[in-house]
Amino acid sequence: MPLTELAANLHMHTPYSDGEWYHAQIAEAAANAGLDLVIVTDHNVLVSGPARYYAHAGRQVLLLVGEEIHDQTRRPQKNHLLVYGAEAELAPQAAQPQALLDAAAEAGGLTFLAHPHDPPAPLVREADLSWVSWEVANFTGLELWNYMSSFKSLLTSRASALRHVFNPELGITTPFPEVLTRWDELTTAGRRIVAIGGADAHGTEYRQGGLRRVVFPYEFLFRQINTHLLLERPLSGDYDHDRRRVLDALARGHCFVAYDGAAPARGFRFSATTERGAAIMGDDIVNRSGLTLQVGAPAEASLRLLRNGKEVQRWEAHSHASLTVPAGEAGVYRVEAHLAFKGRPRGWVYTNPIYVRAG
Questions:
Q1: Residue 321 structural domain
Q2: Which of 15, 110, 291, 298 has the highest Cβ tally under 10 A?
């Protein structure tokens, strides 16, 4: 049975913290951008009430409410955590990252390290907001690609800022190498770490000299870095039922991160098959007598297959590829797709791994 794919954005803010638009407006922007799902994550406040289905322009958008939690008393600010599905206010635990993670797990929540590498932008008085408490355990995953963190890194001078304010796509290329390396190190060491991507949308008006501009409207950002979830069946339209299914897909890593602004990524697939069964991204599979890894993309791209963070195969200008893995060979396999956009090579798709175990 074909999988149901949901295009989702999992990181944004409203006036309940430091955003500009409320939930209904955000849902309309998501519908206009072609999204199926958004999760609103205000800072240190769990907003009750607006989570539900919204209809706009003939499209249904499922809106969930999560939270981005950090210790507001810490100087400098660090360790922002996205929490989904906890249904409890956990901000009082923010001073101790492990205690916060444990409380979220006890409340049934999923936890993702927000913008784990987030360098400063002194030009606009933005601090480094990276995650630093890497000794913690039992988090669900990390935000592999945060659009606004990538944009911050481009603000190295006034000339660069003005250039990228008007043409942000000229500078957005790939996730930070530091985050990719950390992710591969964690998964190769045996930990299951789910990668997601998001906008970190605020709708803020930027001021530079006499220039005033909302550089990143919500709808624009919802067309850029997204997370695509894969479900076995279509959504039912029942909020509670569909919320559980969405959170389950996230927990399992049945998803991939895509730069939809470079090219629409709907339809991208990465799977493994053996004589005993099949697996999709996020799954475990046992390799007793050999298996086949398969990649399918909606457009031709440079496809890279990585095992334990190292490239083992590359296909240039391909939309479909496969590789046979010898019997008994194990490893953490994931796929990256790269393509040209606006005259530059870009990261396009980053799948969650398939965890291949020896027989």
A1: 269-358
A2: 291
Q: Do residues 165 and 194 both lie within one domain?
A: yes
Any domain includes 144: yes
28 vs 31: CA distance, rounded Å: 5
Q: Is residue 290 part of a domain?
A: yes
Q: State how many domains the chain has.
A: 2
Tens-digit pLDDT profile for the chain (359 aa)? 689 999 999 999 999 999 999 999 999 999 999 999 999 999 999 999 999 999 999 999 999 999 999 999 999 899 999 999 999 999 999 999 999 999 999 999 999 999 999 999 888 888 999 999 999 999 999 999 999 999 999 999 989 988 888 888 999 999 999 999 999 999 999 999 999 999 999 998 776 666 677 889 999 999 999 999 999 999 999 999 999 999 999 999 999 999 999 999 999 999 999 988 999 999 999 999 999 999 999 999 999 999 999 999 999 999 999 999 999 999 999 999 999 999 999 999 999 999 999 97
For residue 122 the two structure tokens come to 């002194």
For residue 69, what are the contacts with CB-CB under 8 A and spacing of at least 6? 43, 44, 80, 81, 83, 90, 91, 93, 94, 100
340: domain CATH number is: 2.60.40.10
